[in-house]
Amino acid sequence: MCAFALRGKTALVTGAAKRLGRACALSLAEAGANVVVHYNRSAAEAEALCADLTRYGVRAWPLPGDLARPEEAEGLLPRARALAGPVQVLVNNASIFDPSRLEDVSFDQVTENAAVNAWAPFALSRAFAAQGLPGRIVNFLDTRVDGYDWPHVAYILSKHLLAALTRMTALEYAPDITVNAVAPGLVLPPPGEDDSYLDRLTGSVPLQRHGTEADIARTVMFLLQSDFITGEVIHVDGGVHLRRG
Ligand SMILES: NC(=O)c1ccc[n+]([C@@H]2O[C@H](COP(=O)([O-])OP(=O)(O)OC[C@H]3O[C@@H](n4cnc5c(N)ncnc54)[C@H](OP(=O)(O)O)[C@@H]3O)[C@@H](O)[C@H]2O)c1
């Protein structure tokens, strides 16, 4: 059986204007897929990326939406479809990553992280499946789901939810749709940090380096094109998950 062909298909990538989402959008366009570039605040970057994507001979559309608002999360796939037609690929990349510790994490932090990082990917996946088309979904987890990330409690709880939803939706949406996940490790510095942040931490990575946007995009593309993998999580973390759990 042939691998899932991306050429001529349409993909929705959330949080695609910058960083890892942008790298995935570029790889999809390079493979011949049209891309709906979802963004929240990065309108200028999303417009610029769409211009870059069309250089691959595909179509690209910027699409705003605040995924912290459940009604916007639920309406995003129908809006993408109205703009671009049927959507056969969904990459749930958008995320918030804010500090919180067990001793002072608030209900609002837990619910906001859950809304953006777990509910929105699920709501998008459900609307995606409701199209009744064969397709591919890739969710973004974090290698830290294998351990206890004490400075980011609300964030990591939301990624645990998304890990559970990845397994549940993989079963629920089979056989037409596969649902897989990548769990990145040390790849890009968080907001407010530069590359020296990565350099300081590479010593803790078994492969003694940090990852790149290309490492992540290649893995996403592999999962999107696979026909016999579903409910799987690939750690793209240089082996860090082996030291956790
Ligand atoms: N970077 C890493 O090394 C690393 C490590 C482990 C896991 N991950 C995971 O990999 C994915 C991508 O990482 P990243 O570092 O590239 O992500 P990021 O830069 O932190 O966030 C990606 C995008 O999410 C969007 N977003 C945030 N809040 C939103 C909201 N309320 N509504 C809609 N969109 C919202 C933002 O869009 P706008 O800019 O348009 O507002 C942002 O550009 C994330 O799921 C992250 O958890 C990354």
CA radius of gyration is 17 Å
What number of domains?
A: 1
Helix residue percentage? 40-55%
The CATH topology comes to Rossmann fold
SS field, number of helical segments? 7
Structural class, from helix and strand content?
A: alpha/beta
Distance between the termini: 37 Å
CATH H-tier superfamily: NAD(P)-binding Rossmann-like Domain
Order of helices and strands: EHEHEHEHEHEHHE
Q: List each distinct ligand once.
A: NADP nicotinamide-adenine-dinucleotide phosphate
β-strand number: 7
Given the C-alpha coordinates, what overall shape results? globular
Q: Tell me the fraction of residues in β-strands, as a range.
A: 15-25%
CATH class term: Alpha Beta
| Uncertain spans | none
Largest sheet: 7 strands, parallel
Strand order of the largest sheet: 3-2-1-4-5-6-7
Reported CATH architecture: 3-Layer(aba) Sandwich
Mean pLDDT: 96
Describe the fold and architecture.
The protein has a seven-stranded parallel beta sheet, sandwiched between helices. It has one domain: Rossmann fold, CATH 3.40.50.720. 42% of the residues lie in helices and 15% in strands. The model has no long low-confidence stretch (mean pLDDT 96). It starts with 9 loop residues before the first strand and ends in a 9-residue tail after the last strand. Helix 1 runs parallel beside helix 2. The chain is globular. The protein has 245 residues and is an alpha/beta fold. NADP nicotinamide-adenine-dinucleotide phosphate (NAP) binds next to helix 1.
